[in-house]
Amino acid sequence: MNVRNPNTSSRGSNAILWIVIAGLVIIAGGFLIATLTPTVLPAEASAQAVQVDQLFRFMLTIGGAIFLLVQGVLAFSVIRFRARRGDMTDGPAIHGNTTLEFIWTAIPAVIVLVLTIYSYQVWTSTRAPQPNEQVTGVVGARFAWTFTYGVNEADLPAGVTVEQLPPPVQERFEQDGQIQLVANQLHTYVDQPVLLQMDTQDVIHSFWVPALRIKQDLLPGRTTEIRFTPIEAGVYRVVCAELCGSGHGDMAGTLVDGNLMGAWLVVHPDEATYRREFLEPEANRVLFPPEDPVQLGRQILGSGKYPCATCHVLTDLGWAGNIGPALDGVGTRTQRLAATGAASMEEYLHDSLRNPGAYLVPGFGNLMPQFNPEPDQPNYMPEEDLTAIVAYLLTQTGQ
Ligand code: CUA
Prior knowledge:
By secondary structure, this protein is an alpha+beta fold. The chain has three domains: 19-73 and 102-128, no CATH class; 134-288, Sandwich (Immunoglobulin-like); 301-393, no CATH class. Helix content is 40%, strand content 18%. The protein has helices at 6-36, 47-80, 98-127, 167-176, 271-287, 293-303, 335-340, 345-354, 383-393; strands spanning 134-141, 144-152, 178-183, 186-189, 194-200, 205-209, 214-218, 224-228, 234-237, 239-240, 254-256, 259-261, 264-268, 313-314, 319-320. The strands form five sheets. Strands 3-2-1-5-8 form a five-stranded mixed sheet. The chain has a three-stranded mixed sheet with strand order 4-13-9. It has a three-stranded antiparallel sheet with strand order 7-6-10, with no helix packed on it. It starts with 5 loop residues before the first helix and ends in a 6-residue tail after the last helix. The model has no long low-confidence stretch (mean pLDDT 86). Residues 140, 205, 240, 242-244, 248, 251 line the site of dinuclear copper ion.
């Protein structure tokens, strides 16, 4: 009679019990890793962030379980099959196991296929056009971001009609059906889908808002797009994620003494607040520009329309950049006239913006963008903007 050894049988069922327990621990561990890891990420501020994080958690669950399985088997083998004292024998010679190899090829193949389908679905869904999008232009230039908003008739501040605009503004408005306003921060409001159309004035930059979980490169000679729908009001940091030169780090929003400096995304709680706190005051500034060129120049530079703030010190506007020469006192720096051959400080400043590479202040590299007079050229700066900026800079006579 063939009696089963009771010892072997209980060892077999014990092993199955342990494998089941280990399997459950591994799966639970995978879920734990997927739940705990995202707690170190920034808040989910967009509808896209929710989808991206769901995909991320899904991948972390699988990746975490595989990590625990591999490390668990490794640790178990190191302890269980270690060489005992005095044991000089070799292990058994094993030449592959077709079943095992089939399983460990088939399971990853299925996982990769599932992840491919899921990722593709998230990719297309986060980039799909939304109804009623706010279209905002993004320009990256060394070393700042500027955001361009179109103000059309419906966006005019309450009680303002096209007929009331100053003649030159009215003319531009009627020509293009809207007027562009430029700011150095990106404003929108909760549940408003946003389409960003991005261009670079020089090298590759990358627009990244960690809280939105979106990132898109800006490529020379090509307009790239990215979409998001904010779901939570707040102020979020905009970052440049492509090394673009010595001021690359300055293309990220920073806090200086509690003030937002540089590029930030401001999500207002609703449309009324967005219009009241951002659109109307900014539109008023562009629609009714001050007549005094000094005031106009100060307003243009203060708006962030041109990327000057990150590179220059200008105390009057709170700029603290150190990549270019300080602009404090630039209006009386007459020693530059002899070096450049300019006839007046006005001419010197004018030429410095139109052709910054022609004369470099000792100690500074040729990094400043050349601001060109024609609309179809990169870094377009109309002559009237330049005249106003120079008029304002001439008043900077302090330290
Ligand atoms: Cu722009 Cu880095």
